[in-house]
Amino acid sequence: MSLLAKLKRKATQVQADLFPPTEFDPKKLPWIDHSAADVAAFVRQFKPRFPLTYNLEEKLRFWQKNGYVILEKAISDELIARYWQDVEELLEHPEKYKLMTRIDLPKFEPNQERLIGEFPKEDLKGKYVKLNDFHHLSETGKNLMTHPAITNFLEAIFQQQVVVMQSLTFMYGSQQPTHQDFPWVTAKIASHLAAAWIPLEDITIDSGPLYYYVGSHKLPKFNFSNGILFTNRSKRTPLEFANYLDTQCVAQGYPKETLLIKRGDVLIWHSALAHGGGLITNPDKTRKSFVCHYSTKEALPFHRFKPQQEPVVQTYNGVSIYKHPDYSDQENILPA
Protein backbone atom coordinates (compact mmCIF):
# COMPACT_ATOMS: atom_id res chain seq x y z
CA MET A 1 0.00 0.00 0.00
CA SER A 2 1.33 3.44 -0.97
CA LEU A 3 1.99 6.19 1.59
CA LEU A 4 -0.89 8.20 0.14
CA ALA A 5 -3.27 5.27 0.51
CA LYS A 6 -2.15 4.73 4.10
CA LEU A 7 -2.72 8.41 4.90
CA LYS A 8 -6.20 8.29 3.34
CA ARG A 9 -7.06 5.17 5.37
CA LYS A 10 -5.81 6.84 8.56
CA ALA A 11 -7.81 10.00 7.83
CA THR A 12 -10.94 7.91 7.24
CA GLN A 13 -10.43 6.15 10.57
CA VAL A 14 -9.94 9.43 12.43
CA GLN A 15 -13.09 10.86 10.84
CA ALA A 16 -15.06 7.74 11.83
CA ASP A 17 -13.81 8.05 15.41
CA LEU A 18 -14.70 11.74 15.67
CA PHE A 19 -17.98 11.58 13.77
CA PRO A 20 -19.27 7.99 14.00
CA PRO A 21 -22.10 7.21 11.57
CA THR A 22 -25.57 6.79 13.03
CA GLU A 23 -27.21 5.77 9.73
CA PHE A 24 -26.22 4.37 6.36
CA ASP A 25 -24.55 6.94 4.10
CA PRO A 26 -27.44 8.17 1.90
CA LYS A 27 -25.02 8.88 -0.96
CA LYS A 28 -23.95 5.24 -1.07
CA LEU A 29 -27.30 3.49 -0.65
CA PRO A 30 -28.26 0.87 -3.24
CA TRP A 31 -30.85 2.40 -5.56
CA ILE A 32 -33.68 0.28 -4.21
CA ASP A 33 -33.21 1.64 -0.68
CA HIS A 34 -34.09 5.17 -1.75
CA SER A 35 -37.67 6.21 -0.98
CA ALA A 36 -38.21 7.32 -4.57
CA ALA A 37 -36.96 4.08 -6.13
CA ASP A 38 -39.08 3.20 -9.17
CA VAL A 39 -39.06 -0.59 -9.48
CA ALA A 40 -41.17 -0.75 -12.65
CA ALA A 41 -38.89 1.71 -14.48
CA PHE A 42 -35.81 -0.20 -13.31
CA VAL A 43 -37.10 -3.56 -14.51
CA ARG A 44 -37.93 -2.16 -17.94
CA GLN A 45 -34.27 -1.24 -18.55
CA PHE A 46 -32.50 -3.99 -16.55
CA LYS A 47 -30.79 -6.70 -18.59
CA PRO A 48 -30.31 -9.78 -16.40
CA ARG A 49 -27.13 -11.78 -16.86
CA PHE A 50 -29.09 -15.07 -17.00
CA PRO A 51 -32.64 -15.98 -18.08
CA LEU A 52 -35.01 -15.09 -15.26
CA THR A 53 -36.79 -17.92 -13.48
CA TYR A 54 -39.03 -15.64 -11.38
CA ASN A 55 -40.95 -12.38 -11.72
CA LEU A 56 -38.20 -9.87 -10.99
CA GLU A 57 -40.51 -6.88 -10.55
CA GLU A 58 -42.62 -8.79 -8.04
CA LYS A 59 -39.54 -9.92 -6.10
CA LEU A 60 -37.99 -6.43 -6.04
CA ARG A 61 -41.21 -4.85 -4.78
CA PHE A 62 -41.43 -7.48 -2.06
CA TRP A 63 -37.79 -6.83 -1.07
CA GLN A 64 -38.38 -3.08 -1.03
CA LYS A 65 -41.31 -3.46 1.37
CA ASN A 66 -40.25 -6.41 3.53
CA GLY A 67 -36.43 -6.56 3.46
CA TYR A 68 -36.13 -10.11 2.16
CA VAL A 69 -37.21 -12.33 -0.69
CA ILE A 70 -37.59 -16.08 -1.26
CA LEU A 71 -36.66 -17.61 -4.60
CA GLU A 72 -38.76 -20.77 -4.71
CA LYS A 73 -37.33 -24.01 -6.15
CA ALA A 74 -34.29 -22.16 -7.46
CA ILE A 75 -31.56 -24.73 -6.72
CA SER A 76 -31.40 -28.29 -8.03
CA ASP A 77 -31.22 -31.27 -5.68
CA GLU A 78 -28.12 -32.43 -7.55
CA LEU A 79 -26.13 -29.25 -6.82
CA ILE A 80 -27.11 -29.30 -3.15
CA ALA A 81 -26.23 -32.98 -2.83
CA ARG A 82 -22.80 -32.42 -4.40
CA TYR A 83 -22.07 -29.63 -1.93
CA TRP A 84 -23.07 -31.75 1.04
CA GLN A 85 -20.82 -34.55 -0.24
CA ASP A 86 -17.93 -32.09 -0.01
CA VAL A 87 -18.95 -31.21 3.56
CA GLU A 88 -19.03 -34.89 4.50
CA GLU A 89 -15.58 -35.39 2.98
CA LEU A 90 -14.27 -32.49 5.05
CA LEU A 91 -15.74 -33.83 8.29
CA GLU A 92 -14.51 -37.37 7.60
CA HIS A 93 -10.93 -36.30 6.81
CA PRO A 94 -10.36 -32.95 8.60
CA GLU A 95 -6.61 -33.54 8.84
CA LYS A 96 -6.31 -33.07 5.07
CA TYR A 97 -7.77 -29.56 4.99
CA LYS A 98 -7.01 -26.00 6.10
CA LEU A 99 -10.24 -24.42 7.21
CA MET A 100 -10.98 -22.19 10.16
CA THR A 101 -13.79 -23.73 12.18
CA ARG A 102 -15.61 -22.62 15.30
CA ILE A 103 -17.16 -24.89 17.94
CA ASP A 104 -19.00 -23.01 20.68
CA LEU A 105 -18.46 -25.54 23.46
CA PRO A 106 -16.98 -24.58 26.85
CA LYS A 107 -14.31 -27.28 26.62
CA PHE A 108 -12.68 -25.44 23.71
CA GLU A 109 -12.42 -22.08 25.50
CA PRO A 110 -10.63 -19.74 25.19
CA ASN A 111 -9.79 -20.80 21.63
CA GLN A 112 -13.09 -21.93 20.13
CA GLU A 113 -11.97 -21.04 16.59
CA ARG A 114 -9.03 -22.93 15.10
CA LEU A 115 -7.97 -24.98 12.09
CA ILE A 116 -10.40 -27.84 11.58
CA GLY A 117 -7.75 -30.54 12.01
CA GLU A 118 -7.12 -29.37 15.58
CA PHE A 119 -10.61 -30.44 16.71
CA PRO A 120 -11.58 -34.03 17.60
CA LYS A 121 -13.50 -35.58 14.72
CA GLU A 122 -16.44 -36.57 16.91
CA ASP A 123 -16.97 -32.92 17.92
CA LEU A 124 -16.92 -31.76 14.30
CA LYS A 125 -19.96 -33.91 13.62
CA GLY A 126 -21.80 -32.59 16.68
CA LYS A 127 -23.57 -29.41 17.66
CA TYR A 128 -22.40 -25.77 17.77
CA VAL A 129 -20.08 -26.22 14.77
CA LYS A 130 -19.58 -23.42 12.25
CA LEU A 131 -17.51 -24.08 9.11
CA ASN A 132 -16.08 -20.76 7.96
CA ASP A 133 -15.59 -20.00 4.25
CA PHE A 134 -15.72 -23.60 3.07
CA HIS A 135 -16.37 -22.23 -0.43
CA HIS A 136 -12.62 -21.62 -0.72
CA LEU A 137 -12.05 -25.38 -0.69
CA SER A 138 -15.23 -26.47 -2.45
CA GLU A 139 -15.69 -25.37 -6.04
CA THR A 140 -19.24 -26.69 -5.84
CA GLY A 141 -19.73 -24.25 -2.98
CA LYS A 142 -18.68 -21.44 -5.31
CA ASN A 143 -21.15 -22.60 -7.96
CA LEU A 144 -23.90 -22.87 -5.36
CA MET A 145 -23.40 -19.42 -3.79
CA THR A 146 -23.30 -17.78 -7.24
CA HIS A 147 -26.22 -19.70 -8.72
CA PRO A 148 -27.76 -17.73 -11.64
CA ALA A 149 -31.00 -17.13 -9.71
CA ILE A 150 -29.03 -15.53 -6.87
CA THR A 151 -26.69 -13.61 -9.17
CA ASN A 152 -29.57 -12.06 -11.11
CA PHE A 153 -31.19 -10.75 -7.94
CA LEU A 154 -28.00 -9.43 -6.35
CA GLU A 155 -26.97 -7.64 -9.54
CA ALA A 156 -30.45 -6.09 -9.70
CA ILE A 157 -30.34 -4.65 -6.16
CA PHE A 158 -26.70 -3.54 -6.21
CA GLN A 159 -26.27 -2.53 -9.87
CA GLN A 160 -22.54 -3.09 -9.37
CA GLN A 161 -20.01 -5.89 -9.54
CA VAL A 162 -21.05 -8.39 -6.86
CA VAL A 163 -18.35 -9.79 -4.55
CA VAL A 164 -18.51 -12.73 -2.14
CA MET A 165 -17.59 -11.70 1.41
CA GLN A 166 -17.82 -14.94 3.39
CA SER A 167 -19.76 -18.14 3.92
CA LEU A 168 -20.87 -20.23 6.89
CA THR A 169 -21.92 -23.87 6.80
CA PHE A 170 -23.99 -25.34 9.64
CA MET A 171 -25.22 -28.79 10.61
CA TYR A 172 -27.45 -27.58 13.46
CA GLY A 173 -29.37 -24.41 14.27
CA SER A 174 -27.45 -21.45 15.71
CA GLN A 175 -30.04 -20.22 18.29
CA GLN A 176 -28.49 -16.79 17.70
CA PRO A 177 -30.24 -13.80 19.35
CA THR A 178 -31.91 -11.18 17.18
CA HIS A 179 -29.39 -9.15 15.19
CA GLN A 180 -28.73 -7.34 11.94
CA ASP A 181 -25.75 -8.29 9.81
CA PHE A 182 -24.14 -4.96 8.95
CA PRO A 183 -22.58 -4.20 12.40
CA TRP A 184 -20.57 -7.45 12.24
CA VAL A 185 -20.01 -8.28 8.57
CA THR A 186 -18.34 -5.04 7.58
CA ALA A 187 -17.01 -3.55 4.37
CA LYS A 188 -16.13 0.03 3.40
CA ILE A 189 -19.81 0.79 2.73
CA ALA A 190 -22.13 -0.67 5.36
CA SER A 191 -25.23 -0.70 3.15
CA HIS A 192 -23.52 -2.74 0.41
CA LEU A 193 -24.34 -6.06 2.03
CA ALA A 194 -26.84 -8.83 1.46
CA ALA A 195 -27.04 -12.43 2.57
CA ALA A 196 -28.44 -15.68 1.24
CA TRP A 197 -29.55 -18.71 3.21
CA ILE A 198 -29.49 -21.88 1.14
CA PRO A 199 -31.17 -24.73 3.05
CA LEU A 200 -29.50 -28.08 2.44
CA GLU A 201 -32.57 -29.93 3.72
CA ASP A 202 -36.19 -29.10 4.50
CA ILE A 203 -36.27 -27.02 7.71
CA THR A 204 -38.65 -28.03 10.49
CA ILE A 205 -40.09 -26.09 13.44
CA ASP A 206 -38.16 -28.12 16.05
CA SER A 207 -34.70 -27.56 14.49
CA GLY A 208 -34.23 -23.94 15.55
CA PRO A 209 -35.43 -22.33 12.31
CA LEU A 210 -34.59 -18.80 11.22
CA TYR A 211 -36.98 -16.04 12.25
CA TYR A 212 -37.16 -12.42 11.10
CA TYR A 213 -39.17 -9.26 11.62
CA VAL A 214 -40.87 -8.36 8.37
CA GLY A 215 -40.00 -4.81 7.25
CA SER A 216 -37.47 -4.26 10.05
CA HIS A 217 -34.77 -3.16 7.61
CA LYS A 218 -36.38 0.29 7.94
CA LEU A 219 -35.71 0.58 11.68
CA PRO A 220 -33.54 3.47 12.97
CA LYS A 221 -30.05 2.12 13.54
CA PHE A 222 -28.79 1.11 16.98
CA ASN A 223 -25.85 3.17 18.29
CA PHE A 224 -23.16 1.08 19.96
CA SER A 225 -21.86 4.34 21.52
CA ASN A 226 -19.39 4.71 18.68
CA GLY A 227 -21.79 4.49 15.76
CA ILE A 228 -23.66 1.70 14.01
CA LEU A 229 -20.75 -0.76 13.68
CA PHE A 230 -19.66 -2.95 16.58
CA THR A 231 -15.95 -2.62 17.41
CA ASN A 232 -13.68 -3.17 20.41
CA ARG A 233 -14.40 0.45 21.34
CA SER A 234 -18.16 -0.08 21.58
CA LYS A 235 -19.61 0.47 25.04
CA ARG A 236 -22.96 -1.17 24.34
CA THR A 237 -23.23 -4.95 24.06
CA PRO A 238 -24.67 -7.41 21.54
CA LEU A 239 -27.36 -8.34 24.07
CA GLU A 240 -28.39 -4.67 24.37
CA PHE A 241 -28.52 -4.62 20.57
CA ALA A 242 -30.77 -7.71 20.52
CA ASN A 243 -33.06 -6.21 23.15
CA TYR A 244 -33.33 -2.97 21.16
CA LEU A 245 -34.30 -4.85 18.01
CA ASP A 246 -36.87 -7.09 19.71
CA THR A 247 -38.41 -4.17 21.60
CA GLN A 248 -38.51 -1.75 18.67
CA CYS A 249 -39.84 -4.30 16.20
CA VAL A 250 -42.77 -5.07 18.50
CA ALA A 251 -43.37 -1.38 19.26
CA GLN A 252 -43.40 -0.45 15.57
CA GLY A 253 -45.58 -3.36 14.53
CA TYR A 254 -43.13 -5.40 12.46
CA PRO A 255 -44.52 -8.95 12.51
CA LYS A 256 -42.21 -11.78 13.55
CA GLU A 257 -42.22 -14.74 11.17
CA THR A 258 -40.58 -18.15 11.38
CA LEU A 259 -39.19 -19.52 8.13
CA LEU A 260 -39.78 -23.20 7.38
CA ILE A 261 -37.92 -23.04 4.11
CA LYS A 262 -37.62 -26.03 1.79
CA ARG A 263 -34.53 -27.56 0.21
CA GLY A 264 -34.13 -25.93 -3.20
CA ASP A 265 -35.49 -22.55 -2.09
CA VAL A 266 -33.23 -19.57 -1.34
CA LEU A 267 -33.80 -16.77 1.15
CA ILE A 268 -32.01 -13.49 0.38
CA TRP A 269 -32.18 -10.76 3.00
CA HIS A 270 -31.27 -7.12 3.46
CA SER A 271 -28.27 -6.23 5.62
CA ALA A 272 -30.55 -4.42 8.10
CA LEU A 273 -33.26 -7.08 8.42
CA ALA A 274 -33.59 -8.07 12.10
CA HIS A 275 -33.38 -11.85 12.35
CA GLY A 276 -32.12 -14.69 14.53
CA GLY A 277 -32.08 -18.43 15.16
CA GLY A 278 -35.08 -19.97 16.89
CA LEU A 279 -35.04 -22.36 19.84
CA ILE A 280 -34.04 -25.96 19.10
CA THR A 281 -36.77 -28.06 20.71
CA ASN A 282 -35.51 -31.38 19.32
CA PRO A 283 -31.75 -31.55 20.08
CA ASP A 284 -31.23 -34.32 17.57
CA LYS A 285 -32.81 -32.44 14.68
CA THR A 286 -30.37 -30.97 12.15
CA ARG A 287 -30.72 -27.68 10.29
CA LYS A 288 -28.20 -28.13 7.48
CA SER A 289 -27.63 -24.77 5.83
CA PHE A 290 -25.21 -22.71 3.75
CA VAL A 291 -25.22 -18.98 4.57
CA CYS A 292 -23.42 -16.56 2.24
CA HIS A 293 -22.71 -12.83 2.50
CA TYR A 294 -22.17 -10.58 -0.50
CA SER A 295 -20.99 -7.04 -1.10
CA THR A 296 -19.80 -4.96 -4.06
CA LYS A 297 -16.37 -4.34 -5.51
CA GLU A 298 -16.66 -0.67 -4.49
CA ALA A 299 -17.26 -1.62 -0.86
CA LEU A 300 -14.95 -4.65 -0.73
CA PRO A 301 -12.04 -4.37 -3.20
CA PHE A 302 -9.96 -6.76 -1.07
CA HIS A 303 -10.18 -10.08 0.77
CA ARG A 304 -11.30 -9.22 4.29
CA PHE A 305 -8.33 -11.11 5.80
CA LYS A 306 -5.79 -8.98 3.90
CA PRO A 307 -7.28 -5.52 3.27
CA GLN A 308 -3.91 -4.05 2.26
CA GLN A 309 -3.19 -6.74 -0.33
CA GLU A 310 -4.35 -6.91 -3.94
CA PRO A 311 -6.73 -9.89 -4.15
CA VAL A 312 -6.54 -12.71 -6.66
CA VAL A 313 -9.94 -12.70 -8.33
CA GLN A 314 -11.92 -15.69 -9.55
CA THR A 315 -15.22 -15.27 -11.36
CA TYR A 316 -18.17 -17.64 -11.02
CA ASN A 317 -21.42 -16.82 -12.82
CA GLY A 318 -20.33 -13.19 -13.03
CA VAL A 319 -19.62 -12.87 -9.27
CA SER A 320 -16.11 -12.12 -7.97
CA ILE A 321 -14.66 -14.47 -5.37
CA TYR A 322 -11.26 -13.62 -3.92
CA LYS A 323 -8.85 -16.50 -3.37
CA HIS A 324 -7.89 -17.16 0.23
CA PRO A 325 -4.72 -15.12 0.80
CA ASP A 326 -3.20 -17.58 3.30
CA TYR A 327 -4.29 -21.00 2.03
CA SER A 328 -4.13 -20.62 -1.74
CA ASP A 329 -2.85 -24.20 -2.05
CA GLN A 330 -6.27 -25.38 -0.82
CA GLU A 331 -8.35 -23.27 -3.22
CA ASN A 332 -10.76 -25.61 -5.07
CA ILE A 333 -9.03 -28.65 -3.58
CA LEU A 334 -12.48 -30.24 -3.89
CA PRO A 335 -13.24 -29.60 -7.58
CA ALA A 336 -16.74 -29.47 -9.01
TrEMBL record:
Keywords: Dioxygenase, Oxidoreductase. InterPro entries: Phytyl_CoA_dOase-like. Its cofactor is Fe(2+). GO terms for molecular function: 2-oxoglutarate-dependent dioxygenase activity; iron ion binding. It comes from the Bacteria. This is Phytanoyl-CoA dioxygenase. The lineage of its organism: Bacteria, Pseudomonadati, Bacteroidota, Cytophagia, Cytophagales.
